[in-house]
């Protein structure tokens, strides 16, 4: 959780990449469960 917030703060320019990767990570979490 902290790492995600840190990456978002460090790379505020890559908002599109974040929007693209965040749902993928959420899917991975859902499939892990």
Automatic annotation (TrEMBL):
It comes from the Bacteria. This is Uncharacterized protein. The lineage of its organism: Bacteria, Bacillati, Bacillota, Bacilli, Bacillales.
């Amino acid at each position: 959780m902290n790492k995600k917030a840190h990456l978002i703060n460090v790379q505020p320019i890559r908002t599109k990449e974040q929007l693209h990767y965040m749902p993928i990570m959420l899917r991975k979490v859902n499939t892990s469960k």
